[in-house]
Structure formats: C-alpha cells, structure tokens
Amino acid sequence: MELRQLRYFVAIVDHGSLSRAAKVLHIVQPALSQQLQLLEDELGASLMHRSAQGMQATDAGKIFYEHAQAILKQVHDARSAVAQSTDKPSGTVALGIPQSASGALAFPLLAALREKYPDIVFQLTEELTGHLTEQLRCGRLNFAILFDDGQLGGFNSKPLAEEDMMYITRADSRFAGKRKSISLAKALQSPLILPSLQHGVRPRIESKVRQAGLQMGEVIDITSIAILKSAIMADMGATILPVSPFLAEIERGEMRALPISGVSLSRTVVLCSSKNIPLTNAALAVQKLVLEVTHDLCASGRWLGAQSLL
C-alpha cells in the first residue's frame, strides 16, 4: 500500500467521481481506476460502488476513508515538524470542540490564533463529544476539548476549567417562576430538554441524579444546541447545562440561568491530545495559546460559570 493510493482514494470519495478526482490529481482516469482496484485487491474488500449519484464509498470504504485521512494528516504533520521554525510556527493544527463549549471558547481562540500565529492553518471542528474522542484517537485531530468522565486515560490531558451547570429556561417561563435558585428535585419536575447520551454532559447529569437518590422525569432528547435553544424559547421545558451556549440569549434577557442548590453539578473541561502522535511546533504553540485564552476568559468573567484550573 502506497501513500499515493491513499491520496487517490480520498480524492475519489471527496469528489464522488473518478473523472473529477483524476482531473484534480492530474492523472488519467484509467490509471486512477487501476490504483483503486489494486487497493481493493490488497484489502480484500470493495471500497467504492457506482450509483445514480456517482461513486460512493461502501461501508468498508467509509471505515478505510477515516483511516486514510488520519494517516495522510500524520504524514503532513511529520513533514511540517521537520520544516517549520520554532520562532515562527506554521502548518496545520486541528482542534475539536463540543457544541456546548464552543460558544465560550471557539471565537476567542480563533481570534487569538489569527493575531499571534497567522502562519498556522487552524482547523476548528464542532462535534459531539463521542465523535471527537474517536477522531482524536485515530489521529484526525491534534487536540480535542473533552470533559473528564474518568475515561480519558488513553490521552494526554490538561484540565482547563471547572464549569458549573445551571437550570436554564426562557426568561418568562412557567418552569422558572420568580426563583433565584432551584433544587435538583424541583428541577427534575419540569420537562427537561437535554442532549443525547452521546453528549458529554448528559451522563454527568444522570450520575448526579442517581447519587442524590432521585430519578429522571420527562426528558426531550435534542442533540443540536440550536434546536435545543428553539425548544427552550418555545417554553417546551427547561435544560440543565453550562451557561456558555446560552450567553447571548441570557445577556439579551431572553433566557434565565438559575443556580441548582444543594448539589455540586459541574463538569471539568480538559484539553486532550494523543499519547502516540508527537505534537508539531505549531501544535505546541496552539496548546499554549488554548491554556492562555482559557485562563483569561475565566479570570475576566467572560466565560460565565467557569473557574480556571490553570
């Protein structure tokens, strides 16, 4: 198996056509088709099939595509690590961030990187926590912002912040009343709009509920933060989440966030990287900047409800 075969295969999947991929790769289509056949013969599996929409990856092809992308990225990082200067780091760095943390951290980090390290190509991905873990493990990401659930032993981890979770409703919601805080038992009496179990926050909430000897009531599962916000604004229920995804709505007076009394409900935000893949100079620069930006956001109060662990 050759690196060029991986590049060819990724291009075919990305473009959905042998002819388009051949044009982009500057090779003739029969040669590209031959390399795909050699790759399939070596793997003993069909990777692509033709459909009315063009060339599409088979189930085996989808799995191989993820690995091919990760391998090509690691080769690119290795070349960049040899070539780049420590004084002026350059290259590509990929960071994954969960939907529920991106509101607080994504834009400040992006702005700081553009100002301090303009030669670094920064790829910021917003995904569910479970997807980020897999992408970090296979090497598609250099870093991921994850939440410490006691199962991060396979990664290098640096705690960034402890973020409180609060009871959040529409400002005039029938589920909030005029309270200044709410007990966990009372919060559970409302219909709760929560991310699915794939989301890093949900298991933490359910664990705290069990520890308190309580039971979850009605739960509306919504994975998308945008749709979850819409459901809250429609007063379909309340949520228990960190404040960061709702900062804009709270500042505009559209939503309210109440502390949950009698229980410590928070999550530890962690910066993770692979134990097996060395970090380039560019990645090390990004790592340092993530720590600086996080500390500044917490110290200034701009990351509401978060306390720095740095």
UniProtKB/TrEMBL annotation:
GO function term, MF aspect, one: DNA binding
Keywords, comma-separated and alphabetical: Activator, DNA-binding, Transcription, Transcription regulation
UniProt cross-references to PROSITE patterns, sorted A to Z: HTH_LYSR (PS50931)
Top-level lineage group: Bacteria
Domain HTH lysR-type: residue ranges: 1-58
GO biological process entries: regulation of DNA-templated transcription initiation
Matching PANTHER family: NITROGEN ASSIMILATION REGULATORY PROTEIN NAC, TRANSCRIPTIONAL REGULATORY PROTEIN NAC-RELATED
Similarity annotation: Belongs to the LysR transcriptional regulatory family.
Name of this chain's protein: LysR family transcriptional regulator
Organism: Undibacterium piscinae
